[in-house]
């Protein structure tokens, strides 16, 4: 699978290349890796980081340290061994786990990991039963399926966690440090020396023989044998290639081979640039160690050959190439499902929470997924008092999936038996590989936070989360204004025909308060400046306002206001961005404003087709404006608007999904702005140009009506300048 190029952050002279992937951000489709990102805070401030204590420096603990470090937290790792070196030979990095590593900045091919390209199956007599070429099927997954030397992976994780290079503060690694007690309510750990260390959260990543598990469950959990044990060791591939008998078994790069007997199996796959062959030889545990527990027990070559003496000769020749001093044997342990992984401010991850049998190669992968989920629920800005809830959310995210994989591994390890149904490995593979824990856990966390905040604005498209609006950020925090917002409103008020304008009322609940047929209306143009929610820029708005309108409520009472049948705006964001604007009578057009000291002009057009000239001349400053010198000229109860959202499907054509009347109270709007300068005009004119459907394909029906509005007399014109936002729908209220 292709990856993007990378440049080394640092290189040290060593047998192990210590190169951390850098470069482009993680590319899901190509499987590229990168760790270039910034920590972002919605509130614009750097919150205090959490102090996190991780008990155990294995694969899960170190991966958690990387994710939490990159979130900006202070991480300390306490490892009881002296060198914090991972034991073992090699490990599968399946796409679900490898994707997390790559997004954390680790490209494991840099450290010798090889792509798994072939799987070859043999029976216990050495007869080849199946060959699977994975080149095409591997393209199904976002990230590569690789085989890594376990020590190389551990070293890469450790370097990424504690190095001064990378995102966030380096984690502190304390070796030869045993944790003997945990205060789960106060996140305090006690070391073997008696020293007590206070943290904000404690993570138990101390493996299958976990001591942290006891502090969650309240008692010592009982591990039990699965009935199987495994020899493990490495063989130099070059040595096998030089032997004609064994060369045919190891000739392909990236090949995993499995020999199945009735109650035992040998699994072989390469690592370290295809130079080493990793062996896991699984067998009844009574034949090698009499049921004794232990992860890293010494074993002998004679013992290995005796257990697999009935397997084919070429395979036995391959096994004889093992260094006798390097052969280890460990009992494959299992454990009943824990009822919970978290208590107070302590949570378990990896094999501390769910010991995993090795038959799917998902033990390390599940620990990596756990770590990614923990990092997802504890982003920058997490408050210490939220930790117990966040750890329970982590458990909710991971519990079912980890135990399903655990059960799949048990099934995959069953010996062939008469009548046993064949295992659907494709279903297992799809479940295991078709998951990205960072994406999944992040989305669950976001939804959990959204559910707590009833002030969020939601509108389509919903999949991207809540929307920012003119009045608040996407997380419902009030918009902080970097500079003072200002406006300019030009208004021409005129006498018109009530019998004509009443045809613009949407329902019979709207009518003129006065029985007179001579009524008043206004065309107003407002320019909004320094609008924080659109990056400090501004936009223009043109509206028709019909004054003296009475709305009869269902209870018989009335509201007197100014009805707005249409608003033109020259910025799409202002029409569709806010929840309050959805269904409002807003449409788009170009509005070109030219203001001078004594004149004001505006032209409205659509893609070059002009349809309105709006002109005010002879402006003079008003020294003592009266109470009616507002942006709207009216002192009624507010602006009346009708919201309408159409239904879909042919059967519902012409009908509404919802429709209702709204008032924007005058007190709500006026509280958000203040007039600082008022100029009145000597002359004004408003001239519409009827354009046909070719010139105005989306607006001609509106402009045609506006052009027919009688303007009997211009009764007033002015320009009002001020601070704030006079057009506010944030206070809009549904009437009935």
Description of the structure:
There is one protein chain. By secondary structure, this protein is α+β, with helices and mostly antiparallel strands. It folds into 2 domains: 51-222 and 336-415 and 422-447, FAD/NAD(P)-binding domain (3-Layer(bba) Sandwich), CATH 3.50.50.60; 486-734, Acetoacetate decarboxylase-like. It has 16 helices and 36 strands. The strands form 6 sheets. Strands 21, 22, 23, 24, 25, 26, 30, 31, 32, 33, 35 and 36 form a 12-stranded mixed sheet that branches. The chain has an 8-stranded mixed sheet with strand order 6-5-14-15-16-13-18-17. Strand 23 (518-531) and strand 24 form a beta hairpin. Helix 1 runs parallel beside helix 3. The chain is elongated and about 110 Å long. It starts with 50 loop residues before the first strand and ends with a strand. Residues 1-32, 35-45 and 627-631 have low confidence and may be disordered. This is FAD-binding domain-containing protein. InterPro entries: Acetoacetate_decarboxylase, ADC_dom_sf, FAD-bd, FAD-dep_Monooxygenase_BioMet, FAD/NAD-bd_sf. Residues 52-404 form the FAD-binding domain. Belongs to the paxM FAD-dependent monooxygenase family. It comes from Oidiodendron maius (strain Zn).
């Amino acid at each position: 699978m292709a990856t993007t190029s990378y440049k080394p952050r640092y290189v040290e002279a060593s047998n192990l290349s210590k190169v951390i992937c850098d470069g482009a951000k993680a590319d899901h489709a190509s499987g590229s890796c990168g760790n270039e990102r910034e920590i972002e805070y919605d509130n614009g401030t750097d919150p205090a980081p959490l102090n996190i204590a991780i008990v155990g420096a294995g694969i899960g603990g170190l991966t958690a340290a990387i994710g939490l470090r990159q979130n900006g937290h202070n991480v300390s790792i306490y490892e009881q061994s002296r060198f914090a070196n991972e034991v073992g030979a090699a490990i599968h990095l399946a796409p679900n786990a490898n994707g997390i590593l790559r997004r954390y900045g680790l490209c494991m091919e840099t450290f010798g990991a090889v792509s798994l390209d072939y799987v070859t199956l043999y029976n216990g007599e050495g007869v080849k039963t199946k060959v699977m070429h994975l080149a095409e099927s591997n393209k199904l997954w976002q990230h590569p399926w690789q085989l890594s030397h376990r020590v190389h992976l551990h070293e890469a994780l450790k370097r990424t966690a504690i190095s001064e290079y990378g995102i966030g503060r380096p984690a502190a690694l304390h070796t030869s440090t045993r944790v003997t007690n945990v205060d789960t309510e106060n996140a305090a750990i006690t070391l073997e020396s008696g020293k007590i260390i206070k943290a904000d959260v404690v993570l138990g990543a101390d493996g299958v023989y976990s001591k942290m598990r006891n502090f969650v469950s309240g008692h010592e959990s009982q591990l039990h044998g699965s009935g199987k044990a495994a020899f493990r060791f490495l063989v130099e591939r070059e040595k096998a290639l030089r032997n004609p008998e064994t060369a045919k078994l190891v000739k392909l790069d990236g090949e995993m081979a499995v020999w199945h007997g009735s109650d035992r199996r040998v699994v072989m796959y390469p690592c370290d640039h295809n130079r080493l062959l990793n062996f896991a030889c699984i067998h009844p545990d009574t034949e090698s160690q009499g049921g004794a527990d232990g992860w890293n027990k010494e074993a002998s070559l004679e013992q290995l050959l005796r257990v697999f003496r009935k397997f084919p000769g070429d395979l036995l020749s391959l096994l004889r190439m093992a260094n006798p001093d390097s052969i280890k044997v460990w009992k494959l342990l299992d454990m009943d499902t824990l009822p919970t992984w978290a208590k107070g401010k302590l949570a378990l991850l990896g094999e501390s929470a769910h010991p995993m049998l090795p038959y799917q190669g998902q033990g390390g992968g599940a620990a990596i997924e756990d770590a990614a989920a923990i990092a997802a629920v504890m982003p920058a800005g997490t408050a210490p008092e939220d930790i117990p809830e966040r750890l329970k959310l982590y458990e909710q995210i991971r519990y079912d999936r980890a135990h399903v994989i655990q059960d799949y591994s048990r099934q995959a390890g069953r010996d062939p038996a008469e009548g046993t149904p064949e295992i659907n490995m494709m279903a297992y593979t799809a479940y295991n590989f078709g998951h990205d824990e960072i994406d999944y856990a992040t989305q669950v966390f976001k939804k959990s936070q959204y559910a707590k905040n009833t002030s969020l604005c939601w509108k389509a498209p919903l999949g991207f989360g809540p929307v920012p609006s003119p009045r608040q950020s996407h997380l419902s925090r009030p918009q902080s204004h970097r500079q003072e917002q200002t406006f300019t409103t030009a208004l021409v008020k005129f006498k018109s025909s009530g019998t004509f304008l009443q045809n613009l009322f949407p329902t019979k609940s709207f009518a003129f308060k006065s029985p007179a047929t001579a009524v008043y209306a206004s065309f107003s143009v407002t320019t909004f400046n320094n609008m924080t929610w659109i990056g400090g820029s501004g936009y223009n708005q043109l509206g028709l306002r019909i004054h003296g309108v009475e709305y009869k409520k269902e209870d018989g009472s009335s509201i007197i206001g100014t009805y707005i049948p249409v608003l033109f705006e020259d910025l799409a964001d202002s029409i569709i961005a806010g929840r309050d604007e959805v269904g409002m009578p807003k449409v788009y057009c170009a509005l070109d404003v030219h203001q001078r000291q004594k004149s004001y002009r505006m032209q409205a057009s659509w893609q070059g087709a002009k349809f309105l000239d709006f002109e005010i001349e002879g402006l003079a400053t008003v020294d003592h404006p009266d109470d009616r010198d507002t942006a709207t000229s009216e002192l009624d109860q507010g602006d009346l608007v009708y919201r309408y959202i159409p239904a879909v499907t042919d059967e519902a054509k012409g009908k509404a999904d919802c429709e209702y009347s709204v008032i924007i109270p005058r007190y709500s709007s006026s509280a958000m702005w203040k007039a600082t300068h008022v100029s009145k005009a000597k002359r004004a004119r408003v001239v519409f140009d009827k354009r046909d459907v070719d010139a105005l394909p989306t607006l001609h029906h509106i402009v045609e009506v506006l052009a027919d509005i009688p303007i009997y007399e211009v009764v007033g014109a002015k320009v009002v300048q001020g601070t704030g936002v006079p057009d506010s729908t944030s206070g809009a209220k549904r009437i009935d």
